[in-house]
Amino acid sequence: MEDGTFESPGYSTDTCADPFVWDTREDCDVRQILDRIADKWSLLVIALLDTRSLRFSELKRAIDGVSQRMLTVTLRQLERDGLVSRTVHPVVPPRVEYALTPLGSSLHETIQSLVAWTELHQDDIARARQRYDDAREPQSV
Amino acid sequence: MEDGTFESPGYSTDTCADPFVWDTREDCDVRQILDRIADKWSLLVIALLDTRSLRFSELKRAIDGVSQRMLTVTLRQLERDGLVSRTVHPVVPPRVEYALTPLGSSLHETIQSLVAWTELHQDDIARARQRYDDAREPQSV
DNA sequence: CTGTATCCCTCAAGATACTG
DNA sequence: CAGTATCTTGAGGGATACAG
What we know:
Chain A is mainly α. Chain A has one domain: Orthogonal Bundle (Arc Repressor Mutant, subunit A), CATH 1.10.10. Chain A has helices at 29-37, 40-49, 56-62, 68-80, 102-136; strands spanning 54-55, 84-89, 95-100. A three-stranded antiparallel β-sheet of chain A has the order 1-3-2. In chain A, a hairpin with a 5-residue loop joins strand 2 and strand 3. The longest helix of chain A has 35 residues, at 102-136. The radius of gyration of chain A is 20 Å and the shape is globular. The termini of chain A are far apart. Residues 1-19 of chain A have low confidence and may be disordered. At the A-B interface, helix 1, helix 2, helix 3 and helix 5 of A face helix 1, helix 2 and helix 5 of B. Chain A binds a DNA duplex through residues 55-57, 67-70, 72-73, 88, 91-96. Chains A, B: InterPro entries: HTH_HxlR, WH-like_DNA-bd_sf, WH_DNA-bd_sf.
């Protein structure tokens, strides 16, 4: 298992010496899952749910700009992927709790690392953008 | 009424007391940068460029399914954000090399961790999806 | 409260063609 | 080779209304 970088999936007879090319095919599972996880809303939901389980309305309030529809869609996808669990409390005003599953929790560390990086370097990026824009658009207005 | 859910932190001030709620606002830098980095193609480009610098056509070939346009757009964004450098060699057949900047390199570890997680758990996810789909669609056609 | 269903529209992105 | 420019499409996602 630790025999190398990322085990190059033998999906074809190409250069097996590739270090980081996990899989270049579009339909591969990794690409597909990556797209799901790296999703705008998924990322936020997972990060929020690590603190504690949250109700639908709590999530909606916590995530500025998310529509009811997109939150529902996102939660369904995460539930389907086994990252989030959905618990319905059969009370009069419906109460639904969302929580990370163990699988979802295992993702959280990575996501936090991504968020941490972003927080740490947001100024660098802002400066880089400034520099780039200045260089490309010297004509003011 | 106090927003009890997440102590709505003084956004104007700092959020140093919050564990994971980096910022809930839509227009915040972190959210914006996150969207950029977590982008479908950006992720792949950054991962690929860590190995070595690559030419435009090499990237295009390495990333299955990316259109010329999207690769160009992605590279421009990454360049603007200071994550990728672009070097034009003034030779007859134009030769443009893309490489990670130090800032881009610092991101790579995190991205690899995300990819590694995905590779590690893709089977779990596939099973979870199977279970979910089986439960929701018992009526076979 | 927690959704589902519908309509509708924007904008991301693919295809194509053309330049340096 | 490495783009840029244009056109077109379609799917993502918002708004709204309704149901359990």
